[in-house]
């Protein structure tokens, strides 16, 4: 930047930089020039990766079936399989009587 930006613009640019770095996007439109800024960017990127992975873990845990839901799902699958076997057995008996 050429130094003609106001303090408000520098503040908004720094917020933009932190958000982009935190989200691990890294557009490259704003880059840190000092070692302190680079250290802050690296730290922000690491924290952003950790928070993103924790968020994904929480969402996947919420979408996972509970133990009771798994039990009901397995019961329904077994019941459906049992009904298919009963229907197959009935068809065999019907075919046997027709012969």
From TrEMBL:
Record-level GO cellular component terms: membrane
Potassium channel domain mapped to chain residues: 10-63
SUPFAM superfamilies listed in its UniProt record: Voltage-gated potassium channels
Keywords recorded for this protein, A-Z: Membrane, Transmembrane, Transmembrane helix
Membrane-spanning residues: 10-28, 40-60
Gene3D superfamilies, per the entry: 1.10.287.70
Keyword presence, Cell inner membrane: no
UniProt name for this protein: Uncharacterized protein
Organism: Onchocerca ochengi (Filarial nematode worm)
